[in-house]
Amino acid sequence: MAVVKVDKLARSVAEGPSLMTGAFPTKDWMEVPAVFKPGNYAYPTKPEKLEYLDSQQGISLPNARDWNPEEDDWKLPENWKDIIIQGIADRLDKFRSLKIFMDCCVRCGACADKCHFFLGTGDPKNMPVLRAELLRSVYRQNFTLAGKILGKLAGGREMTVGIVKEWFMYAYQCTECRRCSVFCPYGIDTAEITMMLRELLHLLGIGINWAMEPVANSNRTGNHMGLTPQAFKGNVDFLCEDIENLTGVKVNPTFNRKGAEVLFITPSADVFAEPGIFTCMGYLILFEAIGLDYTWSTYASEGGNFGLFTSNEVMKKLNAKMYAEAERLGVKWILGGECGHMWRVVHQYMETMNGPADFLEIPKSPMTGTVFENAASTKMVHISEFTADLIKHGKLNLDKSRNAHVKATFHDSCNPARAMGLLDEPRYIMDHVCDWVEMPENTIREKTYCCGSGTALNTDEIMELRMRSGLPRANAVKYVRDKHDVNTLACVCAIDRATLTTLCDYWVPPVQVAGISELVGNALVLEGEQRQELDEGLRTLV
Amino acid sequence: MELKEALEGHKKEIVSLWIERTLNSYKSPGFFKKESDSFANPVGVNIKDALSTIFDLLLANAEHPDYADPLDRIIRIRAVQTFTPAQAVAPLLELKWVIKQVFSTKKDAEPLLSELDTLDCDVDRIALMGFNLYMECREQIYRCRINEIKSGSHVITDSGCPSKLLQDKPTTLESN
After folding, report:
1. Which of A257, A316, B40, B47 is the most buried (most CB within 10 A)?
2. Residue A15 within any structural domain of the chain
3. Do A157 and A251 share a structural domain?
4. Cα–Cα dist B115/A531, whole Å
5. pLDDT tens across A149-167, in order?
6. CB of A423 closer than 8 Å to CB of A394
7. Is residue A13 situated within a structural domain?
8. Under a CB-based contact definition with an 8 Å cutoff, are residues A486 and A477 in contact?
9. Predicted-complex ipTM score
10. Which pTM does this prediction carry?
11. Are the beta carbons of B39 and A505 separated by less than 8 Å?
12. Which tens digit of pLDDT belongs to each residue from A40-52?
């Protein structure tokens, strides 16, 4: 066997054509097909999940089948093109916003470099303007006079199977975080364009399992995990035992209790998965400390609403469950936990879809008397608004030194920040419970970078995709870790808590992720407590 | 002219060509090259800084551990992008081509072309370190996947409906 000499090998690499040239762009973007290979797409929906959902009242999710994105034949229904064009027509008719967004973009490019997917990949189709163009070109071709006459010259494109594939690729490389919308001079909500793309794909039975199975579970048992009422209560009881072991205080939450003043709803991940469970312990401790008259529901046991990432019908139905349960239990108002997209649904769609919730009262804190006029329509208050108000009125006994092990920074979770303007309340709370610093200005508040794994992209088969799209966020965390020894990334979103943990593990170890309520729970001094030395707060193993 | 002197003298041109070629490996590199705010452009700025640092370390005859940080800044990014393993680490080897390219156009440096063997070996060693790092990153990705699966979230997709399971096992229901 010939021995390859190192210097010869090196020379062939150095003098031959570059290994990198394979990645050079050689064609116009419209000519570059989407190629699916392991790691760049999330698994399609299992047919039985889709069949179940399609059988449900108020939901239409047809064309369930086994199909594989890597194969040429996606087994589309015969009249797929008619379905898509009619689907666009229906939506243009139903949603005025879509019509405006299709027409008003002047391709100024302000959004182009604001997307974390573009920043992490350099793929031009991840520029929000171009991602929208994937749909807009088909719209022009079929729904504008210029497009009908001039076709490609007017930026139109004939609908093809290749475009269906392209939509699937790029509608699932957008987390609907809306950072690009902040920079759009016309205020185009690019997330809504992604939502439309996903709806259109669902007409052909094309979707991802990580979205649809949680949707099916939520519809069936009330939460993403498909936890039964018994399992849900059992998990909360476990956390209560942990709290008693740590603090000596017994907390006694109630479930499905009619006549409670407040219904508390949080993402189910808080109840069962680390590090969300520590946030959940924080809620339980806080409610015990103030003696809140509240109940959990084992039916509306999910704050998350993957319907937002699926279709407006599903979003409406899942959102309605929370309000139906509030009405059934006869509570006065709803307190919501640290969830991300739940708050977008509640703040921006609930009123239109299921409102007004006249059977509830405008939320009023029983401890401080503060009336939350901002929630007059939705009757739902964010836990950080509620906690910040308690702190402002001196209702909490907080010992900041109990978070001495924490040097935090705050990640504005996209939806609470951009969709409901929750910017200062978490910061106000952190000022009172721990030592913390801000990340650079262009990565926080309205301009916050997404975790890279929202909109049901938090599945492990696309780990590389998640890591590259999360790079802009991680890069800013790295800066404060190196400069200020930050060891904790605080946030107010369950998907963040799960996915930023992995993101930090890859890019910025050993930074941990914590919910704001966990930090509150760490610092709260409880009446009658017999607290052990908790070097790591509620995470301490005793 | 000494080799080191020539490398220092033409540093600006070498490094900028090296960066240019590396960033050209992206489909739409204009923004990566242009934007200098590291928080607005983490890929471009990290790669620019890392390549410049690696070149400085080469000039300073630095010890191998010193390369770890800049190599990590570039390879950790490319390990999760859509490159083949070879494409991911290729920029490190490209330095040899870049130096030869620059030297061949300079009268003062051209005679040094035959003396580049030692430098080539240094570059090879850096590339091999980069390959180790690339594999570490890939293994870490797989560990991340396993950790997520172990953390329990897989029950969403990989298990049956719990209420159905409970129907199959009535005793479990009672024990709750």
Report:
1. B47
2. no
3. no
4. 70
5. 999 999 999 999 999 999 9
6. no
7. no
8. yes
9. 0.90
10. 0.92
11. no
12. 999 999 999 999 9
Inside any domain, residue A462: yes
- φ, ψ for residue B11, nearest 5 deg: -55, -45
Q: What is the 3-state secondary structure (H, E, C) of chain B?
A: CCHHHHHHHCHHHHHHHHHHHHHCCCCCCHHHHHCCCCCCCHHHHHHHHHHHHHHHHHHCCCCHHHHHHHHHHHHHHHCCCCCCHHHHHHHHHHHHHHHHHHHHCCCCCHHHHHHCHHHHHHHHHHHHHHHHHHHHHHHHHHHHHHHHHHHHHCHHHHCCCHHHHHHHCHHHHHHC
- One-letter identity of residue A478: K
Q: How far lies A515's CA from each of A255, A387, A493, A521, in Å?
A: 23, 13, 7, 10
Pair A196, A223 in one domain: no
Q: Average pLDDT, stretch A164-175? A: 97
Closest CA to A132 of A144, A140, A122: A140
CA distance B17 to B54: 14
| Mean pLDDT on A10-18 | 44
pLDDT digits (tens, 9 = 90+) for A441-472: 999 999 999 999 999 999 999 999 999 999 99
Mean confidence (pLDDT) of chain A: 93
Backbone dihedral region of A531: left (phi > 0), alpha (psi from -120 to 50 degrees) or beta?
A: beta
Count of pairs with CB atoms under 8 A, one residue in A, one in B: 182
Nearest CA in chain A to B31: A113
Query: Domain end: A159, A180, A207, which one?
Result: A207
Is residue A514 within 8 A of residue A406, CB to CB? The reply is yes
Same domain flag for A37 and A180: yes
Radius of gyration for the alpha carbons in chain B, expressed in angstroms and rounded:
24
Cα–Cα distance measured from residue A215 to residue A342, given in angstroms and rounded to the nearest whole number:
13
* pLDDT, tens digit, 9 for 90 and up, residues A238-263: 999 999 999 999 999 999 999 999 99
Rounded average pLDDT per 10-residue block, chain B, 176 residues: 90 96 91 95 97 97 94 98 94 95 92 90 96 97 91 53 50 41
**Cα distance between residue A358 and residue A343, in whole Å:** 19
CB contact under 8 A, B151 and A498: yes
Residue of A nearest to B38 (CA): A475
Instruction: Let me know whether A221 and A159 are in one domain.
Output: no
Q: How far apart are CA A385 and CA B44, in angstroms?
A: 38
Beta strands (DSSP E) in A389-473 are 407-410, 435-437
Last residue of one domain, picked from the residues A145, A179, A207: A207
Number of independent structural domains in chain A: 2
Probe site for chain A from B156, B159, B173, B175 (most A CB atoms < 10 A): B156
Strand duo A294-296 + A262-265: pairing: parallel
Is A2 contained in some domain? no
A219 contact residues in B (CB cutoff 8 A): none
| Domain interval for residue A268 | 213-539
Task: Give the pairing of strands A380-382 and A407-410.
Answer: unpaired
